[in-house]
Protein backbone atom coordinates (compact mmCIF):
# COMPACT_ATOMS: atom_id res chain seq x y z
CA UNK A 1 0.00 0.00 0.00
CA UNK A 2 2.86 2.39 0.69
CA UNK A 3 4.02 2.13 -2.94
CA UNK A 4 0.64 3.21 -4.28
CA UNK A 5 0.54 6.15 -1.89
CA UNK A 6 3.85 7.56 -3.14
CA UNK A 7 3.16 6.97 -6.84
CA UNK A 8 0.70 9.89 -7.27
CA UNK A 9 3.08 12.27 -5.49
CA UNK A 10 6.02 11.06 -7.56
CA UNK A 11 3.91 11.30 -10.68
CA UNK A 12 2.94 14.89 -9.87
CA UNK A 13 6.58 15.69 -9.15
CA UNK A 14 7.66 14.18 -12.46
CA UNK A 15 4.91 16.06 -14.29
CA UNK A 16 6.02 19.33 -12.68
CA UNK A 17 9.65 18.66 -13.67
CA UNK A 18 8.59 17.80 -17.22
CA UNK A 19 6.58 21.03 -17.42
CA UNK A 20 9.58 23.03 -16.15
CA UNK A 21 11.87 21.37 -18.70
CA UNK A 22 9.40 22.11 -21.50
CA UNK A 23 9.10 25.75 -20.40
CA UNK A 24 12.89 26.07 -20.26
CA UNK A 25 13.20 24.48 -23.71
CA UNK A 26 10.69 26.94 -25.13
CA UNK A 27 12.50 29.89 -23.52
CA UNK A 28 15.79 28.72 -25.01
CA UNK A 29 14.26 28.32 -28.46
CA UNK A 30 12.66 31.76 -28.26
CA UNK A 31 15.98 33.30 -27.18
CA UNK A 32 17.85 31.50 -29.96
CA UNK A 33 15.33 32.72 -32.52
CA UNK A 34 15.65 36.29 -31.20
CA UNK A 35 19.46 36.10 -31.42
CA UNK A 36 19.48 34.45 -34.85
CA UNK A 37 21.10 36.43 -37.64
CA UNK A 38 19.26 36.08 -40.96
CA UNK A 39 21.34 34.62 -43.78
CA UNK A 40 20.92 37.80 -45.81
CA UNK A 41 22.62 39.81 -43.06
CA UNK A 42 25.75 37.67 -42.91
CA UNK A 43 28.91 38.32 -44.86
CA UNK A 44 31.49 35.96 -46.25
CA UNK A 45 34.37 35.40 -43.87
CA UNK A 46 37.70 36.51 -45.29
CA UNK A 47 40.83 35.17 -43.61
CA UNK A 48 43.11 37.81 -42.17
CA UNK A 49 46.62 36.94 -43.32
CA UNK A 50 48.29 40.18 -42.24
CA UNK A 51 49.87 38.46 -39.23
CA UNK A 52 52.08 36.44 -41.60
CA UNK A 53 53.87 39.63 -42.70
CA UNK A 54 54.67 40.49 -39.09
CA UNK A 55 55.89 36.99 -38.17
CA UNK A 56 58.39 35.43 -40.58
Kindly describe this structure.
- This protein is mostly helical and 56 residues long.
- It has a domain at 1-32.
- It is built from two helices and no strands.
- The chain has helices at 2-35, 50-54.
- The longest helix is centred in the first third of the chain and has 34 residues, at 2-35.
- It is elongated.
- The termini are far apart.
- The mean pLDDT is 78.
Secondary-structure element order, as H and E? HH
- Could you give the distance between the termini? 79 Å
What profile does the largest beta sheet have? Answer: none
Instruction: Please give the count of helices.
Output: 2
The coarse silhouette is elongated
Radius of gyration: 26 Å
Biased composition (Basic and acidic residues): 14-56
Region (Disordered): 1-56
Amino acid sequence: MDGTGSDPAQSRSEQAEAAEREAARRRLLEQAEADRVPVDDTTRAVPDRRWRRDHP
